[in-house]
DNA sequence: GCCCATCTCCCGGTCAGTGGAAACGACTCT
DNA sequence: AGAGTCGTTTCCACTGACCGGGAGATGGGC
């Protein structure tokens, strides 16, 4: 992958070195992983430090700085959706005793904008900021089912990544699942990401009635889902109302 | 304020136009508010769109893009502190029935990295991403009391902003309050930001024993604080342990 | 249809950014 | 104490990415 010529491109390539698996890096690692020459990397890092987009710890490791977090907190997904949804997610956790998640669609991914945990609940792999493919998650099935037809066709035409032996990988199976989600008004994701979890997801709509997010709880495999379905759908409607949905 | 000469400086100045009060803006607004010429603004905005750092809606208004939120979610304050603290904050809300907050210090500000709300609790002005001066908040008093002496002296030497008639504005009063926080191991903030709220805050320590955050609940003015003090201190210790504190 | 505001695009000029090389600092080993 | 290694920092001649005024395009309101 060639290094971008533009300065902004280089800065974002540098920032892109950080991930959940690598939340910090040395200067040399940043240079090596971004493909930028060492002195170029040094200059960019110095300026990103000045703008608080990066921080440096006592041992010379760099990590994402507070300023990027603050800027990110101004995104509509955070400032509007997530802040309004939080009280309802807390209700959902309290009522169902399971972990709750809120996700939006970005391309063919579900991006988790919040995850609240319940005491003693089955653990989940996502955290705020995680991405998972749409087809393999409850929230993703809801988001895809209500996405523009073009997005659905693109998803059906793309390789569908397998996570467990039960992950939906056949386009025909996915198409059928999406139709069922639209009929039912919710999705149940059965052992798609891990063999130990179900998830139950429902849509969240905005003032225009568009599905802009999905909310879910994650249950242990084999748990009864009917009460969870009711709770999640109710939560989805409450969040929708908070967003101004009719 | 002159426009920075560096491209990164200009980009951050542009992004700095966005705030909680102004989460979106048109191209012309971005140019006017940042001080950048229109065509310069247009070029920068176009590239920030490409990198998903900005988004544009159907009516031509720009807002912070998902990529900045994702990058920000990788900051230590979010990925390490906030993700680990969330379950304990949820516990605190459930037990005390009050809104809970988690904040870190940045200069002379308390930056709220999380705020969970309780049903029917007194509302609070902060949200994730908000800043308030240290001296005027419970979390801020805790963070300042345990900050390096140089930071404390700087705060004492700086103008102390008044929010209510009870806000601490005299350096001597603040010094005394900080000493008491260190003695007690917690802070009670009495009608400092609004006349209708107290807050009770306790420290959160890292593996090295340093105070890296503070947790609080917000009570209506006049409410008994003793039970809240116990709950908040217990929560602070639990989060500390999750961060590897001894 | 006209006016106005906003947005988009062009392109000659220039200075902010480039990156290899040298110097510096910290650490380890003998 | 000295040598070697590794990572970081600094320098500076060169250059092309960026600059931004101005012309044109677009869309909304009257």
Keywords summarizing the entry:
homodimer, alpha+beta, Arc Repressor Mutant, subunit A, Beta-Lactamase, 6-stranded antiparallel β-sheet
Strand content of chain A: 15-25%
What's the main sheet of chain A like? 6 strands, antiparallel
Q: What would you say the CATH architecture of the largest domain in chain A is?
A: 2-Layer Sandwich
DSSP summary, beta strand count of chain A: 9
Q: What is the C-level CATH assignment of the largest domain in chain A? A: Alpha Beta
Trace the largest sheet of chain A across and list its strands. 6-5-4-9-8-7
Oligomer: homodimer
Question: What is the largest interface, and how many residues per chain?
Answer: A-B, 56 and 56 residues
Question: Globular, elongated, flat, extended or rod-shaped: what is the shape of chain A?
Answer: globular
Domain HTH iclR-type (chains A, B): 5-66
Organism (chains A, B): Saccharothrix coeruleofusca
Keywords (chains A, B): DNA-binding, Transcription, Transcription regulation
InterPro entries (chains A, B): GAF-like_dom_sf, HTH_MetabolicPath_Reg, Tscrpt_reg_IclR_C, Tscrpt_reg_IclR_N, WH-like_DNA-bd_sf, WH_DNA-bd_sf
């Amino acid at each position: 992958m060639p290094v971008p010529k533009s300065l902004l491109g280089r800065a974002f390539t540098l920032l892109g070195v950080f991930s959940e698996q690598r939340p910090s890096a040395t200067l040399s690692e940043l240079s090596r992983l971004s493909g930028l020459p060492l002195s170029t990397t040094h200059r960019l890092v110095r300026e990103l430090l000045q703008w608080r987009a990066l921080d440096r710890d006592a041992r010379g490791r760099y990590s994402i700085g507070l300023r990027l977090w603050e800027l990110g907190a101004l995104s509509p997904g955070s400032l509007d959706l997530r802040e309004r949804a939080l009280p309802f997610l807390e209700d959902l956790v309290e009522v169902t005793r399971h972990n709750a998640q809120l996700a939006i669609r970005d391309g063919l991914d579900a991006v988790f904008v919040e995850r609240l945990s319940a005491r003693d609940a089955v653990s989940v792999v996502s955290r705020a900021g995680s991405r998972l493919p749409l087809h393999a998650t409850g929230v993703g099935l809801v988001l895809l089912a209500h996405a523009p037809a073009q997005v659905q066709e693109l998803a059906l035409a793309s390789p569908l990544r397998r996570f467990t032996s039960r992950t939906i990988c056949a386009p025909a199976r996915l198409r059928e699942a999406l139709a069922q989600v639209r009929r039912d008004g919710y999705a149940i994701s059965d052992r798609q990401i891990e063999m130990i979890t179900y998830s139950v997801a429902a849509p969240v709509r905005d003032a225009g009635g568009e599905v802009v997010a999905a909310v879910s709880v994650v249950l242990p495999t084999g748990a009864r889902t009917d009460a969870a379905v009711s709770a999640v759908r109710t939560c989805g409607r409450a969040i929708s109302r908070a967003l101004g949905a009719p």
